[in-house]
């Protein structure tokens, strides 16, 4: 009996199987990161070019900010429409 205990103590614990890389998840995360970067660039670009937009459109700062706000208003409304459509019809484009 004591030899079995000694063997159990001396033997190393079983090694877990090597974790396989799921490349689909990696590509999905890269796609999400690129999309997030593009959205960040779209949100911050008007703030950088505000003087050029004021002179190009001949508006005040309030007028240009209202014009740029239209993008976000439509983005939010169509986000709700897209979400409701995905809930109703699903993400696949198959005919039912």
Mean pLDDT: 82
Structural class: mainly alpha
Radius of gyration: 28 Å
The arrangement of helices and strands along the chain is: HHHH
| Total tally of structural domains | 1
Level of helix content? over 70%
Query: How many β-strands, per DSSP?
Result: 0
The helix tally amounts to 4
Structural write-up:
- This protein is mainly alpha-helical and 96 residues long.
- It has one domain (20-89).
- It contains 4 helices and no strands.
- The protein has helices spanning 2-10, 23-48, 50-57, 61-89.
- The longest helix has 29 residues, at 61-89.
- The radius of gyration is 28 Å and the shape is elongated.
- The mean pLDDT is 82.
Helices and strands in order:
Blueprint: H1 2-10, H2 23-48, H3 50-57, H4 61-89
Q: Which descriptors apply to this entry?
A:
single chain, mainly alpha, 96 residues
Outline:
This protein is mainly α and 96 residues long.
């Amino acid at each position: 009996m004591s030899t079995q205990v000694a063997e159990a103590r001396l033997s190393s614990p079983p090694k877990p199987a090597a974790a396989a890389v799921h490349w689909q998840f990696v590509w999905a995360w890269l796609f999400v990161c690129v999309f997030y970067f593009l959205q960040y660039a779209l949100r911050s670009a008007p703030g950088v070019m505000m003087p050029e937009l004021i002179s190009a459109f001949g508006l005040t700062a309030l007028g240009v900010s209202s014009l740029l706000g239209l993008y976000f208003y439509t983005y939010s409304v169509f986000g709700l429409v897209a979400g409701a459509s995905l809930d109703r019809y699903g993400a696949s484009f198959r005919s039912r």
